[in-house]
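A further point concerns the way the authors explain their paired sequence and structure data. Each protein is reduced to its one-letter sequence and a matching series of backbone shape codes. An entry of this sort, consisting of the sequence and the corresponding backbone structure tokens, reads as follows:
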Amino acid sequence: MSADDALFEKGLPIRREVLGADYVDTSLAKADDFMMAFQRATTSWAWGWAWGDPTLDRRSRSLINLAMLTALGKPHELKLHVKGALTNGVTVDEIKAVLLHATAYCGIPAGLEAFKAAHEILVQEGALPKKDG
């Protein structure tokens, strides 16, 4: 087994546990040869190499991801990682705190996008009540 294959095999179960097996398996199943190169790279590098490093726990990695995705202005990915953060035991208050912290450093527009994206997922996942109106 090559080093790349080993990282892929190490990262795949971590990716499934954090993001959900349905999401990951659907992403892999939909990938043609062109997109499978990306699927293999992200599973190996992000999940096998980075998330597979035992130095930081998954809760910490989730909090870091939320801040980085806010800074990068990537609300679509942030939504995915809000679900992952909940899976990793991050509380709604901790998600709110990290988004406020990121807002202070990244600016109001980035923070607003992040808050809207996170709110949508938190309501969808039942972590926040749906407000009628």
Observations:
- The chain has two domains: 1-55, 57-133.
